[in-house]
Amino acid sequence: MSENNFFLKRKTVRKYTKENISDEKIAQMLTEASHAPTTGNMQLYSVVTTRTPEGKEKLSPAHFNQPSVKGCDVVLTFCADFNRFVKWCEVSDAVPGYDNFQSFMTAVLDVTIFAQQFCTIAEMHGYGCCYLGTTTYNAPQIAEALNLPDRVVPVTTITLGVPDGDAPTSDRLPIEAILHKELYVDYDDDTIKSLYAEKEAREDSKNFVAENNKQTLAQVFTDVRYTKEANEVFSKIYFDFIKSKGFEL
Amino acid sequence: MSENNFFLKRKTVRKYTKENISDEKIAQMLTEASHAPTTGNMQLYSVVTTRTPEGKEKLSPAHFNQPSVKGCDVVLTFCADFNRFVKWCEVSDAVPGYDNFQSFMTAVLDVTIFAQQFCTIAEMHGYGCCYLGTTTYNAPQIAEALNLPDRVVPVTTITLGVPDGDAPTSDRLPIEAILHKELYVDYDDDTIKSLYAEKEAREDSKNFVAENNKQTLAQVFTDVRYTKEANEVFSKIYFDFIKSKGFEL
């Protein structure tokens, strides 16, 4: 595998210059991305772009004021959207049956595929992207800020801009950790330890453990970054929100 | 926008030659795809490849015997996976809190981004891919066929092979249908009709309506392809399955 492979070298970019990307360029990249696979060609998604300071000001707290929201050129909020499709059914003498969990999941897959295709296309143009996982935490505030109607649920967000400086590439687990042939082979303790050994030995991992006053790298995830308490609070918020938007469970 | 743009021209491929793609090539493309964005660098996914006739025989009914399962070179089942991460926590004196809906959604995003990056990479190599939406319908059978443990849930499937003949490109809605600037602007009836006019006027759409003995294209979706009855049955199956695998709601 070449060290110059575009996909191996890609990186998340959180710092951007003040340079603008034109509306036309963004629409063009989104058009290209819309040709990514979509369930039954239904395109169960919408994207809302936020470029104005007032718009970013409203979105920022929903993303816990991560600096890339105000620091980027454009925030793109990717939404699972059954609103457009249901309205099309309604003007077409067709009775839609999409107020359920399966339909929500279908739209989540559609919009995530679309978002990732956009990310790839933008990165190939030399732009920098950062996904914001906070989208599923504070979906109600985001929906309010963007005026989302029923049947439209924010799923993920990408901040976009021209990269400012060089971002580091991230490490990944060895392919044996994620690839199973024919049957899933479960991991015993020794296998787990060896699969994560390289990650734990990295200088940045060790610093991360020390900065957070923890004993192990995994504890930084369980005790600081993705805690049980926060996960449970945000599970309930997102779950209730999906229902409130019309996807019964 | 150039007519030769790779992303605009991409197509779903359901028919494949008998040609084999080497295990090494598949592992290489998956390795490249694993550098796609992932939440907190947790890589909350696994992929199970199925190449043997026996393996495909077991998976085929779960995908309603769609011919691309037995007709492809490799079936790749992409799974949301918190099993590996939780096991790593457990050998690292860390107490995981990922048995909840928010964590499931995080893993769904991770695995879908990974799957789509793989699809793009495979298509750039000239291979053909087809997503199987049936994965969220019959997840319990798929999990049984692939020996998936707790905290591992099938989310999507890609069939892969060397394209046999030329597949058609699909139409897409105009970009105005999916792009909202600053605020979501809801659709009135006339807007909906005009956004779907080109799709409805296509020869293949008209044939689709006639073949299915329907009056409108939307009715083919609501009455034949994605019915309320089926959606409700599969909602319950998938929802219960997610819970049974350890993601409480």
CATH arch. level architecture of the domain at 6-167 in chain A: 3-Layer(aba) Sandwich
State the largest interface: A-B, 118 and 118 residues
Q: What does the main sheet of chain A amount to? A: 4 strands, antiparallel
Global mean pLDDT of chain A? 97
Low-pLDDT windows of residues of chain A: none
The CATH class of the domain at 6-167 in chain A: Alpha Beta
* Full CATH superfamily name of the domain at 6-167 in chain A: NADH Oxidase
Quaternary: homodimer
Strand order of the largest sheet of chain A: 1-2-4-3
Total strands of chain A: 5
Tally of contiguous helical segments of chain A: 11
β-sheet strand percentage of chain A: 5-15%
Descriptive key words:
alpha+beta, homodimer, 249 residues, NADH Oxidase, 4-stranded antiparallel beta sheet, 11 helices
Your description of this structure?
2 copies of one chain form a homodimer. With 249 residues, chain A is an alpha+beta fold. Chain A has a domain of 162 residues: 3-Layer(aba) Sandwich (NADH Oxidase), CATH 3.40.109.10. A 4-stranded antiparallel beta sheet of chain A has the order 1-2-4-3, sandwiched between helices. The longest helix of chain A has 24 residues. The first copy, chain A, is globular.
List the helices and strands and how they pair.
The structure is a homodimer of 249-residue chains.
Chain A: H1 6-9, H2 23-33, E1 45-50, H3 53-59, H4 67-71, E2 74-81, H5 83-90, H6 101-124, E3 128-132, H7 139-146, E4 152-161, E5 179-181, H8 189-201, H9 203-211, H10 217-225, H11 228-244
Antiparallel strand pairs in A: 1-2, 2-4, 3-4
